[in-house]
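New here. Your pick:
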Amino acid sequence: MGAHNRGLRGLMKGALRLVYPPQCLCCAKPVSDEGGLCPDCWAEAQYISGTCCTRCGAPLPGAGLEEDEDSLIVCDDCLHLPRPWLRGRAALVYRGTGRKLALMLKHGDRPDLAPALGDWVARAADPLIRPDMVIVPVPVHLRRLARRKYNQAALLSERVARVHHLTHLPHALLRRRDTPMQDHGTVGDRFANVAQSMQVASRAAPMIEGRTVLLVDDVMASGATLAEAAGVLRDAGSGPVSVVVLARAVKDT
């Protein structure tokens, strides 16, 4: 019966692809495979691979620099800003296609993008994964959740947990207040804006105590939001925290 059902699902999927051929995630042009990008959008997508900052995942110049458990390759931002997490990674640079996709997921009512984008985040997280790690998304305030209908970080983190067969705790962190968007202001303003804005849910506290945590968000700019979330987790007794994001904002060069 199971094989029969799988066969039917395969036939239905094939029929749907005839009627609705795969589309580019970013611009909806026809592509050959589900979850892919057209050549133009691919050319504007800056995937982060090779040498990157150990702390935040920002791409760094240089080739052949290998990171191990005892070494740190740190960007200028991470030398000067508090990072209460251990290591970090990002799938894309936040410009071009990376920026468009992040905004579509967050503000464009496109939760359907989450499985494909979550797979990219899961691949970026490969070096961070540890046995018995728990996966926690950065939370949104209930008012914002009511408007948006979903937490984009939770959609990504659910996929990361599924790919790596780890425990997903989508409600481990709560927003205590609805902070303004972090789009403007100085780095100091951004850290002040999110200060004391989160807490660990009381029923989740026993599930994070002593556990390594992978914190997931859609975009990292200054890192203020992730720093607040990671600090709250550590204060609640978690083990080491690492972070992974879909897109990392970097300075223009």
